[in-house]
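Progress report, Aim 2. The chain analyzed during this reporting quarter is listed below.
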Amino acid sequence: MSDSSQNASSVQVKALVITCTLKASPAASSSELLGSQMATFLTENGVACQSVRAVDHLILPGVEKDMGEGDEWPALRQQVLDSDILVFVTPTWLGQHSSVAQRVLERLDAELSETDADGRPILFDKVAVTAVVGNEDGAHHITAVLFQALNDVGFTVPAQGSVYWNGEAMHTTDYKDLEQTPEKVSASIKTSLTNALHLAKRLQDSKYPVSA
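Predicted structure tokens for the chain:
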């Protein structure tokens, strides 16, 4: 391994968990709970992890990186740029991702026109995983939408890079009301984030090439 690769491997991986619940802090939130469980796993595996609840910030509508006075997205955007892994968490409402999640995706759209010093899209070499929670169906559909959007703007999605929990149809039990984390959810957290961490380290070692 070259000296540059050894130096890259020694750099700590950073992660950002963006939770797109509709509930402002400090209200209890199933999405926040799942996001915190994923943050804990990352921290326990040596990742420097930060978490934000998007609804606590004024994210103005638009598709620019800065929408002007009062817009709090630029600070959140910098946290995205400073991270190697993005964990994108959303609840399910009417079978869809939340309006807060859509707002975040729309603001990330601005990165399509942003490039690094080598002329590559600025979000190349970053990894994204998703988490979806709700007491109704829709997790697979939402995951597909999120994967497409996040990949479009430059993120790489690892193998089995999603976690979800669907409550029993026509019931009102929330994820946060469960007595313990379901085994399948715990297994999905481990798989998705282990693969994300592996991929993030590989991309630190060897970036995507500059297109001809």
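Residues 1-8 have pLDDT under 50 and may be disordered. Residues 163 and 189 are 6 Å apart (CA to CA). These observations will guide the mutagenesis work planned for the next reporting period.
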